[in-house]
Amino acid sequence: DTGVSQNPRHKITKRGQNVTFRCDPISEHNRLYWYRQTLGQGPEFLTYFQNEAQLEKSRLLSDRFSAERPKGSFSTLEIQRTEQGDSAMYLCASSLGVSPTDTQYFGPGTRLTVL
Amino acid sequence: RKEVEQDPGPFNVPEGATVAFNCTYSNSASQSFFWYRQDCRKEPKLLMSVYSSGNEDGRFTAQLNRASQYISLLIRDSKLSDSATYLCVVNKGGYSTLTFGKGTMLLVSP
């Protein structure tokens, strides 16, 4: 499978715990994005990377959230001290990075439930 | 005003019907526009890009009106498999990030 992959697909955690999600982009893609989607809403942008550089972060990305892409390949998104409001689908997408308007291809997402 | 607005629907249509969705966007500097399709509990997938001259892909036609800042999607001869949520997506002013509408749900019945 050469698409974007995400792990785990589902995560249930208790409030206050830390969680980490992983995203593996399409292999030749330089740009990697994180989005969050809640029920009845469209995906909302969180942050994006051009290779290993984190170029933009949304105001939605509170200081409890941190994302990394250390070698310009896979990325991790960590949420510390989870809150019930963090329950959502976390989507990763990647694109070639040649043009700002390159098509973004989404992974299947990680569904987080905070109890 | 929300950045991207869509009628959430649902739009209930019989097979074979023609259905149209509209979407408005607030940032006049937006440069590129897309329709994504999202099936229930699945990831969004690009349906088509939207160009100023309008574009067609089989049964799907997309139009862009920059002056009025709205985008449309027309689906002809609806199929049961077209049932999904259609997301209007805007690239805001040269950045790489996408702004999504809430989506319009389409239900095609036999």
Protein described:
The complex is a heterodimer of chains A (115) and B (110). With 115 residues, chain A is an all-beta fold. Helices cover 0% and strands 49% of the residues of chain A. In chain A, strands 2, 4, 5, 6, 9, 10 and 11 form a seven-stranded mixed beta sheet that branches. In chain A, strands 1-3-8-7 form a four-stranded antiparallel beta sheet, with no helix packed on it. Chain B is mostly beta strands and 110 residues long. At the A-B interface, strand 5 and strand 10 of A face strand 5, strand 9 and strand 10 of B.
What's the gist of this structure?
The complex is a heterodimer of chains A (115) and B (110). Chain A is mostly beta strands. Chain A contains no helices and eleven strands.
List the helices and strands and how they pair.
The complex is a heterodimer of chains A (115) and B (110).
Chain A: E1 5-7, E2 10-13, E3 19-24, E4 31-37, E5 44-50, E6 53-57, E7 65-68, E8 75-79, E9 88-95, E10 105-106, E11 110-114
Chain B: E1 4-6, E2 11-14, E3 19-25, E4 32-38, E5 44-50, E6 55-57, E7 60-65, E8 70-75, E9 84-91, E10 98-100, E11 104-109
Parallel strand pairs in B: 2-11
Antiparallel strand pairs in B: 1-3, 3-8, 4-5, 4-9, 6-7, 7-8, 9-10, 9-11
Q: Work out the strand percent of chain B.
A: over 45%
Strand content of chain A: over 45%
Biggest pleated-sheet summary of chain B: 6 strands, mixed
Class per helix and strand makeup of chain B: mainly beta
Which H/E pattern describes the elements of chain A? EEEEEEEEEEE
Share of helical residues of chain A: under 10%
How many E strands of chain A?
11
For the sheet with most strands of chain A, the description reads: 7 strands, mixed
Helix content of chain B: under 10%
List its salient traits.
heterodimer, A: 115 residues, mainly beta, seven-stranded mixed beta sheet, globular, B: mainly beta, six-stranded mixed beta sheet, five-stranded antiparallel beta sheet, 11 strands
